[in-house]
Amino acid sequence: MSTRIGIIGYGNLGRGVECSIRQNDDMELVAVFTRRDPATVSILTETATVCHVDDVQNWKDKIDVMILCGGSATDLPEQTPEYAKYFNVVDSFDTHARIPEHFANVDEQAKAGNNVAIISVGWDPGMFSLNRLYANAILPQGSDYTFWGKGVSQGHSDALRRIEGVKNAKQYTIPVDSALEAVRSGSNPELTTRQKHTRECFVVLEEGADAARIENEIKTMPNYFSDYDTTVNFISEEELMANHSGIPHGGFVIRSGATGWENENKQIIEYSLKLDSNPEFTASTLIAYARAAHRLNTEGQNGCKTVFDIAPAYLSAKSGDVLRAEML
Amino acid sequence: MSTRIGIIGYGNLGRGVECSIRQNDDMELVAVFTRRDPATVSILTETATVCHVDDVQNWKDKIDVMILCGGSATDLPEQTPEYAKYFNVVDSFDTHARIPEHFANVDEQAKAGNNVAIISVGWDPGMFSLNRLYANAILPQGSDYTFWGKGVSQGHSDALRRIEGVKNAKQYTIPVDSALEAVRSGSNPELTTRQKHTRECFVVLEEGADAARIENEIKTMPNYFSDYDTTVNFISEEELMANHSGIPHGGFVIRSGATGWENENKQIIEYSLKLDSNPEFTASTLIAYARAAHRLNTEGQNGCKTVFDIAPAYLSAKSGDVLRAEML
Prior knowledge:
alpha/beta, homodimer, 4-stranded mixed β-sheet
């Protein structure tokens, strides 16, 4: 079964989805929808069309799954319910605290439209969530730890750029090795925010800006930096472009549990990601779940689902027979 | 929903299942079935009964899921199809090459009995298989690596004990650190058997046995040791009991993939286990999948399934609402 894909929103994530489709023989990119003038957007896939997002309803019978590549702050809360009326959809909604509300809104519209919607796909939420669930189900006695990095935090980089006198900046979140090792030892440490992660900033100053004032402003910024050991490096714009233009990320989900009649045996489950490109990895999970959305809808299912509700075999292009023979 | 569990076979795995049930409030151990004289088998759970395995059919209406804790060589190929006629069953069948045949046999009987059977549950096959599937679905371009250990290999320890002059022995499989690091670097190395694992043997000799002959016999044993760098340590029975009586194990599943229009970005997914008790961890996964088997059957499903076919939410005692709010 081949799946015809549409992409709404063509930023880093949308381009990542386009690249992932190219790696999957059963996937075809049909159209990219944009709020910009379509004539100004050039895509990589020669066989696909660029359209204005206002035309999306004309594509109802030509697209099996629409992948929503907007942002979680304002785009997806509106777009996912709206498009779930007309299409099977997959999104990467990542505002953890608002997932229950988003789920309810999307579920109502997906059921009304008899479509399948899969929300909060990616790695956190997404693969990290899955690993928390599996590990907790297997080891009900234990503690969960999540570490992020080493990787670029878009939100923290934006916070740096908003400071007066900062021309450009990148921020890396870095897990503390000694904290990771303590968790892996099974000692179940209680870790403060400061003990788990450090923050490293690379900042390009406007001409004549006061470096000392800016460094102090960064290190004392509440919520973003004041609770962390933060390092600030002032560099040139050229150096920032040359050495810090990637979007790497990753992290660790560890369950430190115990089994036995008296909980006498330690059991450690660890899942980790080391990603050169955060948006391309997220995009690759969106495509795997798009395959599942299409199949589930073809089987007659509808409504909103998350990674928790999808049997793993639905993600693979291979048949059950082949999966059992090759991967089990 | 509470699940009433029966255990068939009361060795290390059966005892592990009993311990896991104690950690799960929605699980109840009803009876343990044995081929031995029930009067000679004492279990830890005061509220459960020990019965002869010949009486198992009398328990059809008192047990929701039967957990089969026999061996894969001769017990499970007969037991799982047999009991799937009468009960929902879960097993840890781990002869990878014979899984398709086992699946077909169990599927036929489970469908005839309108029961759910979940086979090959544990960590390899089991959680390792799941991670291979997820990682391959997300990163279709890439290479898979599985390392085992550090841990006790029962099969290799048995092979040592069969050598003339060996009184007792334990064998540890140890992944080679430099191979693990090469894989984690994303260089996609081609690794020989010898480069991936070493084998460490702790051997207690019979009185008067020829140590040099035995060491040579071990190191040259085909299939088991000749393809590996093997270390042989001769120790006393006391030392073996004091330092090598545990059953630890674990390992690593790594997918080294690439994304991007020209596969230009490396993406590494790693899953690892560090287990003090191999059988208790396997038992804990059996109980999580027993919960799923009971629920799926209550929803009207039947037939044979594997970990690939079970949506993760079925493993947890928590509701979908709670899972989305707490773990997604």
